[in-house]
Each structure stands twice: as C-alpha cells, then as structure tokens.
Amino acid sequence: MAREAVYDSARRGHPAVEEIRGAIKYRHLILQLVRRDVLTRYKRSVLGVAWTLLNPLGMMVVLTIAFSNIFRFQTPYSYSAYVLSGLLAWTFFAQTTTAAMVNLVWGGGLLNRIYIPRSSFALAAIGTGLVNLALATIPLLFILLYARVPINQSIFFLPVPVILLAGFSLGLGLFISTLAVYFPDVAEMYQIIVTAWMYLTPIIYPEEVIPEQFRLWITTLNPMYYLIHLFRLPVYYARLPTWEEMLPAILVSIVVLCAGWWFFSKKSDEFAYRI
Hints:
The protein has 11 helices and no strands. By secondary structure, it is mainly alpha-helical.
C-alpha cells in the first residue's frame, strides 16, 4: 500500500528557488492574468487597441514640436524616430514596474484565500507590457520608414534588448512591490521618482548635449541609459551593438533581476499578513 505524501516545511528549498518552481507550475494562471489585463484595458474602449499605438505617437508629436523646433536638438536621423524609439522602451519600463507594485497590493486579498505564487502579479505585468510593446512597435516601424531611417537585418536583434529590459523591469518591480507592502507611501513616491528618472535619461534629448559635469550621473551611473541605448541601436542607428555596449546592459539586467527576485521571495511569506 502506497504511503501518503507528507509535507515537510523543513525540506523546502531556498525561497527564491521555490518561487521559481511555483511560477513555472502556475504558468497557466499567469497567462490568464495577462489575458485579463489586456482585455480589461481595451474593454468598452471606442478605439480599443489603437490607444496603444496612439499614446506614444501623441507624446512623440508633442515632444517633437517642443524640442526639435524650439530647442533644436540635432540627431543623426529624424528626431521623431529618435524620441519614439526611446519612449517605447521607457513606457514599457514605467508601466510594468508600476503595474507589478499596484497589482500585488490590490490583488493581495487572494493571498489570504488561496495559494498562488506571489510573483504571479509581477510576471503578469511584464507579460502584459510585452504585448503592449509589440503593438506599439508597429507605429515605430512606420515612422522609421517615413523618416527614411535605414532598416536592415539589425532589426532582428531587437528581442535581445527587450528581454534585458524585461528582466531589469521585473527585478525592480519585485523590489518596489516588496517595499510597497511594508510602506504604502512607496507607490506615490515611485511616480515622482520615475518621472524625474525619465528626464535624467537621454530619451527626449541626445546624450551629446549633456554637460560634462553631469555625464557621470546621467549616463555612467544610470542603468536605464544602457538599456535604452541598446534598444535604440538596432532600430534607430541600424547597427548591432558592440560588446562594450552590450556588457553593461547585460550586467545591470541580471544583477537587478537576481537581487529583486531574492529580496521579494525572502519577504513573500509575510505578504498575506501585511496586505
């Protein structure tokens, strides 16, 4: 007669490893959360999915009028394409990290009722962001063609910076989600931080205009600079990155992802009592 399996908490692996196993086991639930978020966003909307395309285009038009005509920033190709390529990457980062935090706090009631991997909310936010980014890439391609920016085989390298950007966003999203569970004010503070961070990253202005005394903070010590630059290279500059350009982005993405996952999984058992 077969013996019944007995759960022994002492035999559990490291929380980070257990969280990975749980996310893999509940991958279908995560996909359903992504599906729910995508459908909910466009439900009863007159323009529906078109908002994903129009939002970055609208921002591009405003910024192009303000900075290319008034401040007259010079870029190798069309300023519109330069801004849009940076905005898409930044919008993905800002929306996914915010959604990871908000979804955990608002969906925390489920943790008191059923077991689900705590990282499901952050992973669903990344999945939803990838869907929106794929849709938003369509107008970017049209802008590149209209602006006569060269498009070659380097465009097929784009998934690599997207993966690195997703890893960085997931790691930071998990980190700030954990802080938001303990300190609710983090959600409001993060909106201020992410806005200031955007203007301190070469998205709407070329890095050549940055004064020498600020380059250390805006480029060297700014992780998003490396990720956005890597995102721009195959689509705007139409070339593959060098190893010197890739290595900082890879290191930043891996370090932040591992640190955020470890910190989140270490504290996740306490979430049900604090949310």
